[in-house]
């Protein structure tokens, strides 16, 4: 980790220092753990009264916050600027830019300049790997795979034949890209296997977490568009078309032929049935299940997923249902008594 001054940080961010610009910063910590020499950040300005208790040498804060005697870096988005500081102080690991002797590379493969291949990597026929890409041990690149420049393929990743990956893509350990799609047609009491002859296309700046599975298309490509980020433990079924800059959290499952717009958000454990279309900027809440097309932006919750306000009302009624049932029973008894008083001759 580099040691930098607050002025160097401010210059890097294009902002100013409130306090001592020559203060040296050598560490990065959370606001509760920070000590002298560290820099931290305050994401929520409503806790600014707690700042005097912080032991950090500097704090990145929202614009307009000032605390006498503290070194502050004002920011429009403190969390974002803190992330940039981390990038400044903790440079990316410099790879060896070497090809291990026991990496298997087919003779027809094309390997770019500055590529690093660790021991135990398998590179199939007609594979193309762009400049400065790194492939860690145990990874498998099937025939006719294309990977762009500046990519990171971590240990034990399987990338199956004809997969196309753009530039600056990160694939974390044990993920599988281009696995066979789950396609069967019932034939009497048996299941006839439908050949899955499509591929997977992953565009620039996509990040894929650990233990994800992205199936190749049945005929056309499964597409992950540029800038989309996948957390760990996600399944993307065959023929899905994910739009740009989607954010998909852990344990999400998308059935086949789901199409999403730009900037769609799936919270953890949510899912989507097959052949669904989801509009730009839709947000799918945790554990929600999308069963029909979503045609406009907004938050959607529940099973089946519905607009947030509608789901909120339905949930409130659900949790009051027992109370309403008891009140209904009491009203029925009172009505029965009133009827008996009004017509005393009527007996069961």
Automatic annotation (TrEMBL):
Alphabetized Pfam families for the sequence: Hexapep, LpxD
InterPro entries: Hexapep, LpxD, Trimer_LpxA-like_sf, UDP_GlcNAc_AcTrfase_non-rep
Keywords annotated in UniProt: Acyltransferase, Coiled coil, Lipid A biosynthesis, Lipid biosynthesis, Lipid metabolism, Repeat, Transferase
Active site as annotated: 238
GO cellular component terms listed in the entry, alphabetical order: membrane
GO molecular function: N-acyltransferase activity; UDP-3-O-[(3R)-3-hydroxyacyl]-glucosamine N-acyltransferase activity
Gene Ontology biological process terms, A to Z: lipid A biosynthetic process
Protein's pathway: Bacterial outer membrane biogenesis; LPS lipid A biosynthesis
Ranges for domain UDP-3-O-[3-hydroxymyristoyl] glucosamine N-acyltransferase non-repeat region: 24-88
Coiled coil feature spans: 321-348
Enzyme Commission code: 2.3.1.191
Subunit text: Homotrimer.
Recorded family membership: Belongs to the transferase hexapeptide repeat family. LpxD subfamily.
UniProt function note: Catalyzes the N-acylation of UDP-3-O-acylglucosamine using 3-hydroxyacyl-ACP as the acyl donor. Is involved in the biosynthesis of lipid A, a phosphorylated glycolipid that anchors the lipopolysaccharide to the outer membrane of the cell.
Protein name: UDP-3-O-acylglucosamine N-acyltransferase
Organism: SAR324 cluster bacterium
Gene: lpxD
């Amino acid at each position: 980790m580099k040691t930098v001054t607050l002025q160097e940080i401010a210059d890097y961010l294009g902002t100013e220092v409130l306090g001592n610009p020559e203060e040296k910063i050598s560490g990065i910590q959370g606001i509760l753990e920070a000590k002298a020499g560290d820099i931290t950040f305050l994401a929520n300005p409503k806790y600014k009264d707690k700042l005097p208790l912080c032991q950090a040498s500097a704090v990145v804060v929202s614009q307009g916050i000032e605390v006498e005697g503290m070194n502050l870096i004002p920011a429009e988005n403190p969390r974002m600027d803190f992330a940039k500081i981390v990038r400044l102080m903790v440079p990316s690991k410099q790879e060896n830019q070497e090809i291990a002797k026991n990496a298997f590379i087919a003779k027809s493969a094309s390997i770019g300049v500055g590529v690093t291949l660790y021991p135990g990597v398998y590179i199939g026929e007609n594979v193309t790997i762009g400049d400065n890409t790194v492939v860690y041990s145990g990874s498998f690149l099937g025939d006719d795979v294309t990977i762009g420049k500046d990519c990171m393929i971590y240990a034990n990743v399987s990338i199956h034949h004809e997969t196309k990956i753009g530039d600056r893509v990160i694939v974390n350990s044990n993920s599988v890209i281009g696995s066979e799609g789950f396609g069967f047609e019932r034939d009497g009491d048996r299941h006839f296997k439908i050949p899955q002859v499509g591929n997977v296309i992953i565009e620039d700046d996509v990040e894929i977490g650990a233990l994800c599975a992205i199936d190749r298309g049945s005929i056309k490509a499964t597409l992950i568009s540029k800038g989309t980020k996948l957390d760990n433990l996600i399944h993307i079924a065959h023929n899905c078309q994910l739009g740009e800059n989607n954010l998909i959290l852990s344990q999400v499952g998308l059935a086949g032929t789901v199409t999403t717009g730009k900037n769609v958000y799936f919270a953890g454990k949510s899912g989507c049935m097959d052949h669904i279309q989801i509009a730009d900027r839709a947000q799918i809440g945790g554990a929600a299940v999308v069963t029909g097309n979503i045609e406009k932006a907004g938050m959607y919750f529940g099973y089946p997923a519905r607009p947030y306000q509608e789901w909120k009302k339905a949930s409130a009624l659900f949790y009051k249902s027992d109370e309403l049932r008891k009140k209904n029973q009491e009203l029925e008894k009172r009505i029965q008594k009133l009827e008996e008083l009004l017509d005393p001759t009527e007996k069961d």
